[in-house]
């Protein structure tokens, strides 16, 4: 009787331990952020910008619905990928976000760091129009909705560190670049906003 009870208790303990292990292992979905030009999310993670909320611990997690610009996160919430826990990324802070200095019309290498690479449709880069409203959260009407750079992956899995050479659009003054990494085998994409000046 005692032996049967001990075996039952041991079975329960093993089952509970197995459940803990299974539920604590994260799913291996894609995650990543842009490092060139450095994104708002990465500025927060680096501590360059303060009062960022939860994004400071997970700059790789701005994941929202794919299909931009016809689908995807709502206007005004593009930088946070529509996630309320990352809403600090959507505010313009009166132009206080650090901006990467770029040269209009020149060659530039865009870079991502992927903490969990995943099967990928493509990477696309969008930029704000000349004269966009710098005091309002980013919207589709503020962006050129034809990407100035598209890097097709056709379902391939990128490396952890990705480089995309391209040519910058002709611009002057302060702008934002929206980088979109579209995952091939989920319904999501990753959205990264970078502040730049030309």
TrEMBL record:
One Pfam short name: LPMO_10
What residue stretches are annotated with the Chitin-binding type-4 domain? 31-196
Tell me where in or outside the cell this protein is found: Secreted
Major site of localization recorded for this protein: secreted
- Report one GO cellular component: extracellular region
Q: Which SUPFAM superfamilies match?
A: E set domains (SSF81296)
Q: What are the protein's UniProt keywords? A: Secreted, Signal
UniProt key word Transit peptide: no
- InterPro entries (UniProt xref): Cellulose/chitin-bd_N, GlcNAc_Chitin_IntDeg, Ig_E-set
Write down what this protein is called.
Answer: Chitin-binding protein
Query: What is the organism of origin for this protein?
Result: Kribbella caucasensis
